[in-house]
Amino acid sequence: MKTTRHNKILELINKYPITTQEELIDYLRADGYDVTQSTVSRDIKQLRLTKTLLPDGKYRYQASPSAEKGAQNNFSTIFSSSVISIENAMNIVVIKTFSGMAQAACAALDMMSFDHVVGTLAGEDTVMIVCKDVESATACTKEFNEYLS
Length: 149
Prior knowledge:
The chain is of the alpha+beta class. It is built from six helices and six strands, in the order αααββαββαββα. α4 (65-82) runs antiparallel to α5.
């Protein structure tokens, strides 16, 4: 649970200019995480998040390079332990996972922000990835299969 929450925090701070713990708590709660201020404070410390100055004079949370590396390692672990097969059909990549693992695999994919991916959708044992075009789907399928090797 903590690893999933940490991945979500890294995803959120990359997506939004989060400036306070309260904002981060609001985003996490909107995504279904029941967190307290002390939990988020510990997460920030464990992830070694820092605040950087924005052009408008405000500060926002940013991940250190080691946190990003940890997220990539988590992606590889989650992805390789949950995926059964990967195929593409036109611009859609379909990933079959063990039962109950699709959402974890999808969250890991979303966290990594692959360039060719337009969006993802997870069910119980299937992840659908919409890519920009057929070539992108083929490239994604190849890249994702390399993670399984």
